[in-house]
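FIELD: query
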Amino acid sequence: MDSLIKVAAAELGQKEIPGAENNAAIVRYAQEAGFTYINDDETAWCSIFLNWCAKKVNLRGTGKADARSWLLAGQRVDSPEPGDIVVFWRESITSWKGHVGIFFGFSKDASRVYVLGGNQGNQVSVTAFPVANVLGFRRLTPSAVISLPDKVLRIGNTGDDVRTLQNALKLAGFDCGTSDGIFGTKTEAAVKALQTTKFGLRVDGIFDDTTRLYLLDVLNQ
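FIELD: result
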């Protein structure tokens, strides 16, 4: 989800303007994300900002302004990577209040989560939040039909096509590790895991035309 990080990072420093004046950029996030009824920079906007970022890179957002709505977005992940979504509770775990942003990493002692997001200190920033407040991690899915590499890929291949495949495998729920563009043993194992879910598909860890068509079916269901 590098593209999501890039879009959000380009907005770092955009902040609310105290008083009656509003930051036009923050108002634009709301308007372009579909929240046309919001015309100020003081309405809680962490979810609004994330919806705006997701729309910019053709990922499926929630269309809702409440942070906890993201607990139903995309797919749950237990081992988040930078670019995944993290949702927190705020004030009380049982309340409706929360915060949402883009996962950036853990602190060295794993007690805090670094988050790139909006409405953090009234601005777009990278901020640390307690791990104890995490409600869940999510991986967003594309808002349009997904395309996949049209070439045969196997262990030893490298490059953008492999990275695209790795991202697609993770979206389909098959863990291939970090999307590093290297078709190694973890990617091969993920392809094999995919192949075992369809009767009659050869389980060889090679991403060929038959496996490609099946993965497209899985992703676009």
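FIELD: remark
The chain has a mean pLDDT of 93.
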